[in-house]
Amino acid sequence: MPDNYLPHQTIQSFAPPVRTLLGPGPSDVPQRVLAALARPTIGYLDPAFVAMMEELKSLMRYAFQTRNALTFPVSGPGSAGMEMCFVNLVNPGDKVIVCRNGVFGGRMIENVERCGGVAVVVDDEWGKPVDPAKLAAALAANPDAKVVAFVHAETSTGALSDAATLCRLAHEAGCLSIVDCVTSLAGVPVLVDEWGADAVYSGSQKCLSCAPGLSPITFSERVVEKIKSRGRKAQSWFLDLDLLLGYWGETTRTYHHTAPNNSLYALHESLLMVAEETLPAAWARHRRNHLALRAGLEQLGLGFVVDEAHRLPQLNAVSIPEGVDDKAVRASLLQDHGIEIGAGLGPLAGKIWRIGLMGYSSREENVLHLLAALESVLAAQGRSVTPGAAVAAAQRSYQG
Amino acid sequence: MPDNYLPHQTIQSFAPPVRTLLGPGPSDVPQRVLAALARPTIGYLDPAFVAMMEELKSLMRYAFQTRNALTFPVSGPGSAGMEMCFVNLVNPGDKVIVCRNGVFGGRMIENVERCGGVAVVVDDEWGKPVDPAKLAAALAANPDAKVVAFVHAETSTGALSDAATLCRLAHEAGCLSIVDCVTSLAGVPVLVDEWGADAVYSGSQKCLSCAPGLSPITFSERVVEKIKSRGRKAQSWFLDLDLLLGYWGETTRTYHHTAPNNSLYALHESLLMVAEETLPAAWARHRRNHLALRAGLEQLGLGFVVDEAHRLPQLNAVSIPEGVDDKAVRASLLQDHGIEIGAGLGPLAGKIWRIGLMGYSSREENVLHLLAALESVLAAQGRSVTPGAAVAAAQRSYQG
């Protein structure tokens, strides 16, 4: 009986340091959700678990504001949710119009191509919303397009696009719509039925403040019809909606893959917290904390990447001032203050910071803590800042 | 601000019932692992998290008995691990020999076909191990085959195949090997380097007794070379090894997708428990409890599906006696005794039970509890059983 490669005896149970998560996700997970995560594992066909699944679907429909029967959590992160949409909606040779205004639009193009589809790319500048006029023009120029895909809230830039208009244009042109709501869900209105969106996915670790690893997803009846008539198997077995319908569908519970039970307990709890708070209250809270953060950041001389009308309250992209050392600031915030903020991605690397106030992280104490810490770190970098001014401005914002 | 579809006000935090999980997975998750799962979420690029990832890889290499650099957990269940192997190792048109002796071999065929490969199927009866002579014949008849795939421990039947011989045959024929070790890892010897296996995946929720949702995986250098020279993109973005190398690789930490941090804490803890116990001790424990269970089941007149030489100690498939109501017995075990056992799948549905003694579930108290419960349930079904005989036989087995 060989027994080689024993790992270093120094490995111990992992004790994560204390952090405040103010980056682009994951956000801070509240104790209630962590406690749910740690409840005893039971079988995924246990009647008690099956009853919990029904509640989970109902809670997800509330979060997405939809009556879609086919609403469930994908057993993987947001990128698995994205891929589930593309492998099921895009047939080989299908033309797909992808609106790209950041990293995640780019990832959608990768998905189209790997499904054998043809991507027609509508580009907008990073930091700007998707321009509906450009989508309208692309639809007019491509009457054979089958699908329109765009990102509602671009996590790489903090820009919010007009999903209602984009979905309407897609629908009027006879296209199905795929909408990335990873960062938007529960932070700003996501109104699946009102938009008439067809395939919408999100992530557990942003404004839901659940542990990372699940992707809530919802599909319209049009998608179900398309899948039933596609006459071929999806290229992915794991993400095949036909097969998943057997486990998450209305009446049957056929084994497909082992459900991530404990993660689903946690998602149930985090969605329950959203329902208890109600969506309008959650949206208002995200906005209130964003405005306070903005007031403070302005005192620190930090400007936003996105114009005010299209700014996400839950993800604040700010320009790094000339002469300030990006990595040194983030390292000091993390090591000296226990605060994580996000770096820029792609062409914005080194140029912006991404400050997330998502879900449970969107709280007054975090706004004040961050502003105080940022003031001290920027002062140490030789920036001229008025002591206490940023925090005072945020406090005024809360009082006003 | 619309806010419709509020879920029923009756939904509360989910409180799972007390269960003992003696089915085909998930197995019981020990408190130590549940506690790890519930530790505070931190960022997936946090230096503390990155250090934990290195420990995790080292612990996984021990569990797999390999030095493979490319050893990491897939952010999805075992079926995602399976699909990662096929989408990265099988190019369109590639001939793949799949050995099928149960449900999961059949799933491998699905994967080959969805990757555009050509599956050559070597069938063995359900409940039997894969016959190496049939594989040798298939390799001789298909000199252009590129990959051989088989299941080490068939979860649907409880049969263990000779992975060392099957990998050697594949290798001698110039094929890469894909080996499903979902149910075998840490329950019976899985010796990746000694076998010369190329792509090996497992699941977190079987003999590792971690929460479900992750798939530990390891790839040989031959696979890395094949991927680097394939000259095309994998059909899956989420499961593309090229891209994942950037996050889980040796030196870099490029964002690919949001890692399921809390689930990874739990996997770290469960693998640490395996290393503390040591693999030979874990294998011996699974065998000891299996033998006691067998002694008790024989007293109850229950026979095994698999012959003794190829029986998995961690998954015991037993034939349901004539006249006994499958569903009634499982429902009574669950409702009256809190014990979950598994049903048969596919052609074995209604004909067998699958009794798992995996990981933390493989304990003397569970064996005795199950035998006592099964005796009472079978007696209620009108079977003639000698009161106390099954438990006594198991006790003798432990003492012997």
Q: Please identify the structural class of chain A as seen in this structure.
A: alpha/beta
Tally of separate domains of chain A: 2
Give the CATH level 1 class of the largest domain in chain A: Alpha Beta
User: Greatest contact pair?
Assistant: A-B, 98 and 98 residues
The stretches of 5 or more residues of chain A where confidence is low (pLDDT under 50) are none
CATH topology of the largest domain in chain A: Aspartate Aminotransferase, domain 2
State the share of residues found in helices of chain A, binned by percent: 40-55%
Give the oligomeric state. Answer: homodimer
| Known CATH architecture of the largest domain in chain A | 3-Layer(aba) Sandwich
SSE order of chain A, one letter for each helix or strand:
EHHEHEHEHEEEHEHEEHHHHEHEEEHH
Distance between the termini of chain A: 72 Å
Shape of chain A: globular
Radius of gyration over C-alpha positions of chain A, nearest whole angstrom: 22 Å
Number of strands of chain A: 14
Count the helices of chain A. How many?
A: 14
CATH superfamily membership of the largest domain in chain A, which one?
Type I PLP-dependent aspartate aminotransferase-like (Major domain)
Average the pLDDT over all residues of chain A and give the rounded result: 96
Query: Main beta sheet of chain A: strand number and arrangement?
Result: 7 strands, mixed
Biggest sheet, spatial arrangement of strands of chain A? 2-10-9-8-5-3-4
